[in-house]
Structure formats: structure tokens, C-alpha cells
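U., I forgot to send this yesterday:
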Amino acid sequence: MDYFIIIAPKLVSFFLLIVLGFTISKLGIFPKNCLPSLSAFLIKVVLPCLTVSLLCQRGTTWVDLAGFHGIVLCQMAGYVLLAAVGLLCVKLARIQSPTSNVHVGCMVGGNYGFVVIPILMALYTPENGQQYIPICSAIDTMMVWTLGLYFFTRGIEKDGEPWYRILTKRLFNPILVSIVLILTLNSLSVTLPNPVLEVCNNVGNISYSLGLIYVGCTICFLKKGSLHCLKTLWMLVLTKLFAVPLLIYILTGPFLPETERVVLMLIAGAPSMTTSCMIANQYGLDEDYASTAVFVTTICCMVTIPLLFLASALFQ
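Result:
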């Protein structure tokens, strides 16, 4: 019950912002032809600014990541496990491309910033638990924008396009470039000028509200019959929000202390990231499926996160 009380206010604000996005699109304030521009703005400008802002504030370096190698390696393995289970579900449910791309991508990418961090802040002190927040944030961003982006875009390349050009386009996305750059600058003790940091802070801060408003806009424009995807989304809810996180908690028992196991469980069990909709839009994928997945998993995590804590208590 304590965990429900922690996340409930946050999820209510999520819901209200999604409703706001739905409403302004229904009223014609934000028409459908504006969504591609909003999506590009969020991915290419807002999210890189948020990455720079967070990592500069915390001063996270490559050495910091190496110092927490245990939880870092297990966290990376967790994303691989999520992707593998996503691929298995796609095969069992016979989900066709490009919806299958979105399903696996939504398995890998979770809402770390707006669900996991508030819970960790409430559960742990700065010395015992909160020190993992910037470390896991850096790994989360890197894995989502490498492994996650790969599964989102797998198989959509133009025929005959050289492999190195495909690899370059995937790796040199604005978000991944920004995180590598800032980790390197932090490692070299190079600080950005205050005016630059202030701009990054201000622009990055709108990612939370604007991202969820965007989800609401996309839900407004769902095609007729799009809710058929609810038949396969139950697999996403069951595996991403409960089965895989609990499995990660159990498997890491012999290697990691209790706090790190809980952190990894929460990261794996976070609802699908709001940027799934934007990625689907940018690459011409099934945006309806992405929007519904984000909405459904966000609502369902109010139930699954308390259940995870109850179930994990059996394996302590």
C-alpha cells in the first residue's frame, strides 16, 4: 500500500496531462499534421537537453559507471532479457511488423525518470539507495537509444542501404550523442557555461509535460479499430510489468545486495516510455499501438509495482 500511495499522485498527473493532450487535439488546437514536428522537436531538442541537464547536475563520469560495475552489468543484461522475452511474445502472438517492432521496443524502454526515480527517492536515503539514480539513469539512456532503438527500427531499412550507414544513423542519434559527450566532459572536469546549462535545464524541464501531452494527442487520432491491440497488450503488461522484473530480482540474488536488486526490479518493471510514440512517428511504425501501450502500462503499473514488492518478499 505504501508504494501505491507513492506513485498514485504521480500517475494522476500523468493521466491529466494525457487528457489535456487528447482535449486540445479534439478541439483542433493541435491538429494531426503538427504531430511529426512535435515528435521531432522532442527527440532532437528537448530530450538531449534533458540528458545534458541531468548528467551535468549530478556530475556523472565514466569512472562512476565503472565503479558500480556490478549493478551496471546486471542492468544491461536486464534490457537484453526484456528484448528476448518481447521477441518471444511477438512470435507466440504472431504480431506482424511494424507492430512487432513497437512491441519489443516498448519492452526495452521504460519510464525511468517519472516512475522509478520518485519511488527510489521515497524509499532510500542519499547514502543508501539514491546513489544509484544517476548511474542507472545513464545506463538506461544508453541502452534505450542503442538496443531499444535497434529493435524499434529493425528491418525497416531501405533495400541495398550499406550496413555502416544504417549503424551510423542509429548510433548518431541526438540523445546518445549528448550522453556520451556529457559523460566525457564530466570525466575531463570540463563544465559547460552557465547560460548553456540554464537553457538546457529550461528546455529539458518541459519534456515531462510535453511528452505526455503528445501521448494524449496521438490517442485522440487513434484509427477506428485500433483497440484490437488490447488483445496483445496483456502480454506486454504481464511480462514487462511483472514477470521479467520479478525474474531479474530472483536471478540477481546471489550477486547483488538487496537494495540493488530492488532498483533493478523497478527499472525493468517501469511502464513503457512516452518516447515510444515519438519513435514510432519518426520511423513510420505503428504509432497507435505505441500510444495505447504507453497509456495501458502507465495505468497498470499502479497495481503491478505493489504486487512486485509483495512477490519479491517471498524470495528475500
